[in-house]
Amino acid sequence: MIRVQIPFHLQTLGAAPAEVTVDVTGTPTPRSVVTALEAKYPGLQGMVIDPHTGKRRPLVRFYVCQQDWTFEPYDKVLPDAITSGKDVFIILGAISGG
Q1: Which end of the chain has fewer CB atoms at under 10 Å, N or C?
Q2: Residue 98's pLDDT is what?
Q3: CATH code at position 7
Q4: DSSP one-letter string for the chain
Q5: Strand 19-22 vs strand 60-64: parallel, antiparallel, or unpaired?
């Protein structure tokens, strides 16, 4: 089980709590975590990764073990601290504007 923390706006869209757990099939990667999250909470489908382009939505960030993984490859294997449940995979809504 992988722990995933999601921002408030995604909690609302997916009718999900702030922290959820997901089962990942195969190699645990950011892509497989998002896929498992979308399967568990269908309201989140396409909200993190655009289904047409396959790219992360512009105002969404990923944090793994307190490091910014936003621009890491989606198929990069997650560290043991995430897969063991010791640490949480964070999906963060970025803030923009001026």
Answers
A1: C
A2: 60
A3: 3.10.20.30
A4: -EEEE--HHHHHHHT--SEEEE---SS--HHHHHHHHHHH-GGGTTTSB-TTT--B-TTEEEEETTEE-TTS-TTSPPPHHHHTTSS-EEEEE-----
A5: unpaired
Average pLDDT score over residue span 21-37: 95
Residue type, 88: V
The owner of tokens 């489908």 is 45
**Residue 57 corresponds to which tokens in the numbers above?**
């939505």
Q: Answer yes or no: is 57 within a domain.
A: yes
